[in-house]
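Subject: sequence -> structure tokens, single chain

Hey, anyone have a minute? Need the predicted structure for the following. Not urgent.
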Amino acid sequence: MRKVRRKAAWLHEQGLPCAKEASYVKLFSTEAAQKIADTGMQLHGGTGYMMETPIQRFWRDARAFTITEGTSEIQHMVIAKELGL
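Reply:
Had a minute. Here:
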């Protein structure tokens, strides 16, 4: 993923099209964040839902990342379009 991240940044800096690479990076990052937050919530159990713990905020933020700024489904569609599928 590091190479794709660097390539997306380089393409953007050069003013070249980078939609596919940017979508790869966003999709991977948001899905990974959500999976990690879900695991953290499972580890904390019921206390993870309490407003006094930071894990509930991490979990809510990670979920929002997959919804805002282009949903994961839209990222899939952008990637498919860029690949000609």
